[in-house]
Amino acid sequence: MNSFSAVPTSEGPRREFKITWGLRAGYGPSGRIYDLEEAIRAAHRWMRERDARAEPFLSGMFTRGEVVYAGEVLPLYAADMDDDTVRILLNEIASEIGRILEQEEVQVAYRDRTWTLKAVDGVARP
Fold it and tell me: In the predicted model, what is the mean pLDDT of the chain?
């Protein structure tokens, strides 16, 4: 049986975040219902594009239920990333996927704060 040991520099303060998206466009029953895979593909594309430009990005986890995207800022990969940079990245990915999923609002939480992003024209269009 394999044993495990702590990875050097992997320990640090927890910097949890979550982003909540709906899979239905808008609030009405006639809105298109997106597949979770569309959101996952959008997140992977966002991460790959930022990585290809040698820009920082965040990783996370999609789950079914109330929380669609949850993650943490891990010290091993993002120890030098300050909170303002994390907020900028969260807003960017929340806006990108919210636009693709035609959301009117997206709720974001990071550490002890939460905020709402609203589509500028009321309805985000892909």
Answer: 84
> What pTM value is reported for the model?
0.63
Q: On the CB side of 107, how many CA atoms lie within 13 Å of its CA?
A: 11
The span from the CA of 124 to the CA of 126, in Å, is 7
pLDDT tens sequence across 5-24: 777 888 888 888 888 788 88
Task: Label residue 84 left, alpha or beta by phi (over 0 means left) and psi (-120 to 50 means alpha).
Answer: alpha
CA 9, CA 6: separation in Å to the nearest integer? 9
What secondary structure letter does DSSP report for 125? Answer: -
DSSP one-letter string for 94-124: HHHHHHHTT-SEEEEEETTEEEEEE-TTSS-
